[in-house]
Specification:
Elements (H helix, E strand, L loop, with lengths): L9 E5 L10 H9 L4 E4 L6 H13 L5 E6 L1 H9 L5 E7 L10 H5 L11 E7 L5 E7 L4 H5 L5 H9 L4 E2 L17 E6 L7 H10 L4 E5 L5 H4 L1 H13 L3
Parallel strand pairs: 1-2, 1-3, 3-4, 4-8, 8-9
Antiparallel strand pairs: 5-6, 6-7
Helix pairs in contact: 1-9, 2-3
Length: 242
């Protein structure tokens, strides 16, 4: 696939743990209103290598350059999937950015636990090979406070019961690629994040040498509480390719 250097990039948004592609709707609405071509990749939250392979294939179907954006666990995914040939920029939002061979657990262990950790609920589920695996939710009654503070209470209650859980094994799975080593990157930190320690997020961004760092005074689900700020940060990245 060829990428014309002066062609406006398509933005591919990737969700993370405890939400799905629809979580990007408030940001996608604003990007589309600004004339940006937007796509949203839906991942399984079941395995880093599998999710990264899917996002890589999704991106490679786009005709032209792509700025790949990932939120939460999706930031970890795009840090691996960003080695797709047509990716020209990475934007990490409230998520771990891993070094090759490092797992989310490894990075998490460097910092104090976030407030939400005692409220993670683990449940078994059957896998296709007949073994039992484990998935992680945020306790629904605590979700509005821990993930979505500032979202109207009725909307936050819906977000709490429509969570897309993450497989517990994802935390142990090492990244096979650190795409940020060759792709310019930017980062957005949620200063009031209670699901992930913001210091761990900043550490990953700084290690990746992000070209721009935006801090938003909001919770983990910035796409819902501060969609204008998140969209503005992405549009500022696109300006670098205009």
């Amino acid at each position: 696939m060829t990428t014309a250097s002066r062609t406006a990039p398509t933005v591919v948004l990737t969700h993370g743990a405890f939400t799905d592609g629809a979580g990007w709707s408030p940001v996608a609405l604003r990007l589309q209103g600004a004339g940006v071509d937007v796509r949203v990749a839906a991942i399984s939250n079941r395995g880093l290598a599998d999710d990264a392979a899917y996002v890589r294939a999704f991106v490679e179907r786009v005709d032209g350059p792509v700025v790949l954006v990932g939120h939460s666990y999706g930031a970890t995914v795009v840090g691996v999937a960003g080695d797709a040939e047509n990716v020209v920029g990475l934007v990490f939002v409230s998520g771990y950015v891993l070094e090759e061979g490092e797992s989310a657990r490894d990075l998490h262990a460097r910092f104090p636990d976030a407030e939400a950790v005692p409220f993670f609920e683990h449940f078994p589920y059957p896998s296709p090979d007949g073994t039992s695996r484990e998935e992680v939710f945020v306790a629904a009654e605590e979700f509005p406070l821990l993930a979505a503070l500032g979202v109207p209470s009725d909307e936050a209650a819906v977000l709490a019961v429509t969570q897309r859980p993450v497989d517990a094994g994802v935390l142990e799975e090492p990244a096979t690629v650190a795409a940020w080593r060759r792709i310019p990157s930017w980062g957005i930190v949620a200063a009031q994040d209670r699901l992930i320690n913001p210091d761990a997020v900043r550490y990953g961004y700084q290690r990746a040498g992000v070209r721009g760092l935006v801090t938003v005074d909001g919770p983990h689900l910035l796409m819902h509480t501060h969609p204008a700020e998140v969209a503005a940060a992405i549009l500022a990245v696109l300006d670098d390719f205009s």
